[in-house]
């Protein structure tokens, strides 16, 4: 008997028929002998519809009230799913994040989990019942206010509960069959990965892969929770995210990890270039102090060589496009004391990232990447690297072509049937 935490996304419980289908899968797992805890997202587009409804009332709804409103979506899902499971003859009980013991900080809209105290969930398991938990939400320890966890919060809830309960595995059910070597909507020949390390999955998530959110993977790595990414629309074996070694090969030796895990892409970033910065100590530090002070996270940074005649240089950096206005306003306000000439803002960029733990011990990966982009006629504007990742910035309208070219160059194309996105969203 295993303790399994399952998470189902919005596309998996989008309507009554989908909820009944998911209930059958859960009931079958329970009848097979496993203890089951389920975390569920809001049905379909319910969260977006609630946001739209709030904005019809006021363009600036109070964050506390928004959290109370948005958590209603998951409460609807959890209760309906519990009804469907009970209707199949398997006892199930639903819980809000507060009832499940998910304790967060007090930052409404993007709260972070600080503790999990799942007493009621344990009691439900011990009674032989299925516990259904509303994802995406928790409660503060001091004010008892309801909070939401931000994008991908249900994934994070599931992994946090799995860690708190000491579960054997956390199964994340989406509308794709697992983690792929690229987005199957862009690369139909993308290959499903059987196993990915935590570090590789962190880089994939941070570089734009949508199947798991970054916080979920960080939590899983911190507490050693194996995460199994699967589709709720099929019975195929998915992708296991873990640092456990792979199974032994036919000769008794461990199967060597592939050099490259996958190619990720991101269209959500923009680039700011600070033009004419005096090339003296402290100016770059001042620029990034101002940006950090405005609450903006920076991704890639490039500084040009200063011109000998003027002693000025240009500094470019990428950031989330949603923070572009905030960062440019903050820098413009401090232009006199920084002393730069002007700002350039570009939101028509795309980022491509090549990720693989194997590149640490294999020379020539960078050369092969740049050659593939050159052969496809794609210009590189910025480059950033880590031990297991190489990221480049290109024009947004060249990004899809770049992903396909790099995927093929590193022989990641599958010769099996095309990858399927069952629900249409890849989440």
Automatic annotation (TrEMBL):
Pathway the protein contributes to: Amino-acid biosynthesis; L-lysine biosynthesis via DAP pathway; (S)-tetrahydrodipicolinate from L-aspartate: step 1/4; Amino-acid biosynthesis; L-threonine biosynthesis; L-threonine from L-aspartate: step 1/5; Amino-acid biosynthesis; L-methionine biosynthesis via de novo pathway; L-homoserine from L-aspartate: step 1/3
Enzyme class: transferase
MF annotations from Gene Ontology: aspartate kinase activity; ATP binding
One Gene Ontology CC term in the entry: cytosol
EC numbers for this chain: 2.7.2.4
PROSITE patterns: ACT, ASPARTOKINASE
Catalytic reaction equation(s): L-aspartate + ATP = 4-phospho-L-aspartate + ADP
Binding site for substrate: 47, 74
Residues annotated as binding ATP: 7-10, 174-175, 185, 210-211
Keywords: Amino-acid biosynthesis, ATP-binding, Diaminopimelate biosynthesis, Kinase, Lysine biosynthesis, Nucleotide-binding, Transferase
Database matches in InterPro entries: AceGlu_kinase-like_sf (IPR036393), ACT-like_dom_sf (IPR045865), ACT_Aspartokinase (IPR054352), ACT_dom (IPR002912), AKii-LysC-BS (IPR041740), Asp/Glu/Uridylate_kinase (IPR001048), Asp_kin_monofn (IPR005260), Asp_kinase (IPR001341)
The UniProt record lists the keyword Nucleotide-binding: yes
GO biological process: diaminopimelate biosynthetic process; homoserine biosynthetic process; lysine biosynthetic process via diaminopimelate; threonine biosynthetic process
Domain annotation ACT: ranges: 272-357
Domain of life: Bacteria
Pfam families: AA_kinase (PF00696), ACT_9 (PF22468)
Its job: Catalyzes the phosphorylation of the beta-carboxyl group of aspartic acid with ATP to yield 4-phospho-L-aspartate, which is involved in the branched biosynthetic pathway leading to the biosynthesis of amino acids lysine, threonine, isoleucine and methionine.
Similarity-based family: Belongs to the aspartokinase family.
UniProt protein name: Aspartokinase
